[in-house]
Amino acid sequence: MLHRAFAILLAVNAASAATAVDDAAAIFTRQCLPCHDARGSAPLRLDSVERIARNRTLARMLIEDATMPPSIALPDANGLLVDRRLSMADRATLLNALSSSAFVNRAFAGITSGAPADSTEPTFAPPHGWTLPAAGGARVRTFIAATINPNPNPNTATRVRGVRFADLGAREQRPIQMAFLAADPRGILRRLEEADDGAEDGAENGGFEAMGNVGPVPSGALGAVSRVRPSFELPDGFCFEIPVGFIAIETLCEPIGRRTRVLPQLAWIPAREGDTRVVKAIAMPAKALRLSANSCSTIEIVHPVAVDMDVVAVLVKGGAFLRSVDVEIEVELKVSDAGKAGAALRTRLLGVPDYRMAFAEPWIFTRPQRVAAGATIVARLGFDNTADNPQQPSSPPQDVESGLPPLSEDAMVVVLYAPARNSR
Ligand code: HEC
After folding, report:
1. What is the DSSP string of 236-286?
2. How many angstroms is it from 42 CA to the middle of ligand 1?
3. 142-165 pLDDT tens trace
4. Shortest CA distance to 155 belongs to which of 61, 273, 249?
5. pTM listed for this prediction
6. From the CB of 44, is ligand 1 less than 6 Å away?
C-alpha cells in the first residue's frame, strides 16, 4: 500500500517535471525571445540552446533581481501598457530550467529565432549615418528624414497609429537606446543640420548634436521607440497627423566599445478607419538644471490643464543623472475641510522608481486617462549626482549643468493627449 502511494507520488512528480520543462521553453519564447532573437532589439542573442547555456548564469541573476524582462515603470498605474513581469510560477520554472547545463539542454533544445516579419509598410531613414565614438557615455544626435506618405488611402494619407524600427536586425540601430520623433514641416532643423560641418577624421557626419525639439514642439510629439519597445502604437481611436516636409529623429545613443555607424530606420504604422482623434504633445522641460556634485535633488514641473483631455502616453527624456520619475494629476478640492485649504486630490499617471536609460521606453496607456480642465499635471524628477548612482559618468562626481549628455543633463516629460470629444 505504502509502496503504491509512493509510486503514484513519483509518477506525479515526473509528470510535473516534464510539463515544467516544456513550460520553460514556452515562457522563454513568450517573455524573452521577442527582444533576444536575431532581430530583437536587445544586444545579446539568446535564440539557441548554446547561446542560452553560455549566458545561463547571467540570465538567472537578471531574472532573480527582476531586471529581466525589463519594466521600470510601476505596473499598478492605471491602464499602463508595460507589465512584462513574470508570474511567481513562471519565474520559478525559468530559474529552475536555467540552474544547470543539463537542464538548459533539456528545456531549450527546440528554441529557434522566429521568422522575421516581412513588412510592407513604407520605411524612412535619414540620408546619412553618423559615426559614434567607441566610448565616452551616452550621446544625443538628431537626424532629419523626408516625410513619406504613410498610407496609400487618400483619406488617411497623413495619419498614422504609430511608428516602429523598420529593420531591427540592422547593426546601425544597435547603439540607439531611444528615438523621439517630431515633425519639422518648415525644415528648420534640416537647415541647422546642413550648417553643421564638424566632420571628424573621415567619420560619417550625418545628423547634428542637438535636441530634436522644433520650436515649442518637443521631439516625441510623434511618438518614440526604444530598445525595450521597438514598436509604438497609440490606443484604438487615436492617431498622429504627419505634415508634409521633414521628420526630426532625436536619438539617444550608447557607445558599444568600438566605433559604430548609427542610422535610425523607421516605419510608420498606418492609421485604421476609426483612428481619428489627433494626438498632440505637452512639453514639460526641466529648466536651468544644476546638480551639485555629491548631492541628490528633486525638481517639480507643473502644467495647468486648460481643456478636458485624454492622456494616451507619457514620454520621459533624461540622461545618466535622472533616477526617478513621478507624474501625477492634481485636482484642487473645492470644498476643503476646515484647516485643509488647498488640499488636492492626486492621481498617479506614471511612476518610475528606478529610471535607467537602457530600459527607458514610451509609456502608453491601454485605457486613455481623462484629465479635466482646471487640473494640474505635476512631474517630479529625482536626480542623483553621487557616486552611488550606477550610471554616474564621473569619478569623483562633478557639478552638472543643463546641456547635452554625457557630462551635462537635460530632462523633459512629454505628455501625449487628445482633447476630449465633449470639450469646446
Ligand atoms: C522588452 C525587451 C526585453 C525582454 C522582453 C527581455 N530582455 Fe533581456 N535585455 C534587453 C535589453 C535592451 C538588454 C540590454 C540592456 C543594456 O544594454 O544594459 C537586455 C539584457 C539582457 C541580458 C544581459 C546582457 C549583457 O550582456 O549584460 C540578459 C542575460 C538578458 N537580457 C536576459 C533576458 C531574459 C532571460 C529574458 C526573459 C526572462 C529577457 N532578457 C527579456 C531587453 C529585453
Report:
1. TTEEEE--SSEEEEEEEE---SS-EEE---EEEEE--TT--EE-EEEEEEP
2. 6
3. 999 988 766 666 555 588 999 999
4. 273
5. 0.87
6. yes
